[in-house]
Amino acid sequence: MEEAVVRLAEATLAGAKDLPPPPGGRRPLVIDPLIDRASGMETNATRSMVASIENLVRERYPAFELKPFNVTVLDEKPLILLGSITTVTASGSLTNTSGPSSTYRIWAVLGDLQTGTILSHPTAWVRAETVDPTPVRFSSESPVWLDDEAMAAYLRTCAGQPGTPMDPTYLRGLRAQAAVAGAIDAYERNRFDQALALYRQAENEPGGQQARVLNGLYLANWALGRRQEAETAFNEMVNYGLARNRLAVKLLFRPGTSEFVRNPDISAPYPMWLRQIADRVVQRDMCLQIIGHTSVTGSDLLNNRLSLARAQTVRVQLAADKPSLRGRSQAIGRGSREPIVGLGTDDMRDALDRRVEFVPQRCMGLT
Question: When you count CB atoms within 10 A of the terminal residue's CB, does the N or C end of the chain come out lower?
Fold first, then answer.
């Protein structure tokens, strides 16, 4: 991994070699935190990639001035580096896979914010055993997963080819991206007041209505003991997801059972989460599919039964809060057929694969 990242960074930075020299002698460069393609989250692997690239720039590239990714620096129109990582079918392949794999593909792009143009887009492949896909703290603790436009715009930019324009949605949301990056850093340093202020700043920027901001507002308020504000933030996440016809929540169950984990640090807010979901569904006068998922370990038969049992557990709890949902909801088990991470580690690394999804439906024959 380390060797591949160095080669990748060298090829990425080479994209700036034909640019005219900057007036100050050094060219400002920022890094928009790299993400995992499948989940859209930062992981230990993407964080290590960023650290390696930063070290390389400082040690070998004096023509670049590495600067923090924040709103103030963006006003300088610096170069910007971003990228991603994903499992693929084999070395040299561009075919992504959601299941266990022996190979990861890593890639990066270098963009010029002066012109809005992509300068380079190299790719490398690495052995899976050298990659740590564990989600970082913020990603792991975020309760809701949403495949939103901010993540899609980032990945579209990562897919751009040299000489082509950067994605306009990504560029429009850059100030929000920068504020979120600072907020996540503050949150993981337990500077919750600072994190909350930055999440609020991001929320008010173009592109600020996104999953990371909504998760961050919830997490920062919860960490500060502001339970009512946290509940309001979770309510906003529910509305955001239902409006997009897909709300995936990380409700963690005891292994092999349909019972929530007994650790109150994890499951204490679950009743509030489910109450908010029930309230929003009833207020919207809709019906609901509750879809359980499992990790890719275990037999198909077992996973199908387990995912259905977990969806049924959630359905019962929703109906206990809002009895009208008994006749307006349906529990479905998808087993392990739709993994997002696909590692089969059965721990926090693949918690998304054991999610419960809430999909609003028109009330036509749903029982």
Answer: C
CA distances from 302 to 33, 124, 224, 252, 356 (A): 38, 37, 40, 17, 17
* Domain coverage including residue 303: 245-367
Residues 6+ apart with CB under 8 A from 323: none
Closest to 86 measured CA to CA, from 125, 121, 118:
125
Straight-line distance from the first to the last Cα atom of the chain, in angstroms, rounded to the nearest whole number: 50
Is 194 within the bounds of a domain?
yes
Residue 230 has phi, psi (to 5 degrees) of -65, -40
Residue 149 domain-assigned (yes or no): no
Tokens read off for 324: 């009208």
Regarding beta strands 79-88 and 35-36, do their DSSP bridges make them parallel or antiparallel, or are they unpaired? parallel
Closest Cα to residue 105, out of 157, 52, 34?
34
User: How confident is the model over 245-249, as a mean pLDDT?
Assistant: 92
Alpha helices in the chain (DSSP H): 2-13, 44-60, 71-74, 137-141, 149-158, 168-172, 174-188, 192-203, 211-223, 227-243, 264-267, 270-283, 300-321
280, 271, 278: which is closest to 240 by C-alpha? Answer: 280
306, 4 Cβ separation under 8 angstroms? no
Q: In this predicted model, what pLDDT tens digit does every residue of 69-123 receive, in sequence order?
A: 999 999 999 999 999 999 999 999 888 887 678 999 999 999 999 999 999 999 9
| 283 Cβ contact list (under 8 Å, min separation 6) | none
Average pLDDT over the chain, rounded to an integer:
93
Residue 28 lies in a domain: yes
Q: Give the CA dihedral 270, 271, 276, 278, nearest 10 degrees.
A: 110
Q: How far is CA 253 from CA 12, 331, 334, in A?
A: 43, 16, 16
User: What count of Cα atoms within 13 Å lies in the side-chain half-sphere of residue 54?
Assistant: 15
CATH of the domain at 35: 3.40.50
Within-domain flag for 92: yes
Residue 130 and residue 76 share a domain: yes
3-state DSSP assignment of residue 4: helix
Q: Which of 243, 267, 297 is the last residue of a domain?
A: 243
Q: Say how far apart CA 365 and CA 362 lie, in whole Å.
A: 9
CA angle 355, 239, 136 (to 5 degrees): 45
